[in-house]
């Protein structure tokens, strides 16, 4: 119940421009895109690919619409906040730049490391 109430309040705060019924669907789909990018990053285990997967996850989520953009921003900010709290804040600003680049529709391949297999 508290989660539902928090979600409704959040919807009012972000001033949704989309139809009320598409936003939650887009948010769930965007969260799925972010999770898929994370799974691919773990599976690829490729040196210097972190920024690429950040940008790709945000890009794909944002392509879903306002809900996807919102989910990408919330997930990205939460992840960077938790990294900062656990002492891993070394490249937080660079990660956030890649996150913003992807959310704003920039090509994730800007961050693609050389040699990363094409299936990513």
Quick recap of the structure?
This protein is mainly α and 120 residues long.
Characterise this structure.
Belongs to the SAA family. By secondary structure, the protein is mainly alpha-helical. The protein is about 65% helix and about 0% strand. The longest helix is centred in the first third of the chain and has 22 residues, at about 25-45. The radius of gyration is 15 Å and the shape is globular. α2 runs antiparallel to α3 (about 50-60).
Tags for this entry?
about 120 residues; mainly alpha; about 65% helix; globular; Serum_amyloid_A; Synovial_Prolif_Regulator; HDL; acute phase
Mean pLDDT, to the nearest integer, reads 87
Largest sheet: none
Q: What is the ordering of alpha helices and beta strands?
A: HHHHH
Note the total helix count.
5
The percent range for strand residues is: under 5%
Radius of gyration: 15 Å
Q: What is the molecular shape?
A: globular
Helix content: 55-70%
The tally of strands reads: 0
Structural class of the secondary structure composition? Answer: mainly alpha
Uncertain segments of ≥5 residues (pLDDT<50)? none
For the record, give the distance between the C-alpha atoms at the N and C termini, rounded to a whole number.
Answer: 38 Å
């Amino acid at each position: 119940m508290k989660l539902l109430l928090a979600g409704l309040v959040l919807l009012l705060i972000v001033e949704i421009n989309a139809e009320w019924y598409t936003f939650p669907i887009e948010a769930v789909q965007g969260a799925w895109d972010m999770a898929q990018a994370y799974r691919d990053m773990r599976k690829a285990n490729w040196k210097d690919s972190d920024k690429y997967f950040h940008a790709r996850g945000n890009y794909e989520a944002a392509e879903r619409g306002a809900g996807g953009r919102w989910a990408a921003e919330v997930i990205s900010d939460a992840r960077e906040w938790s990294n900062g709290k656990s002492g891993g804040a070394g490249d937080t600003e660079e990660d956030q730049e890649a996150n913003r680049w992807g959310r704003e529709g920039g090509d994730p391949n800007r961050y693609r490391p050389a040699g990363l297999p094409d299936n990513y």
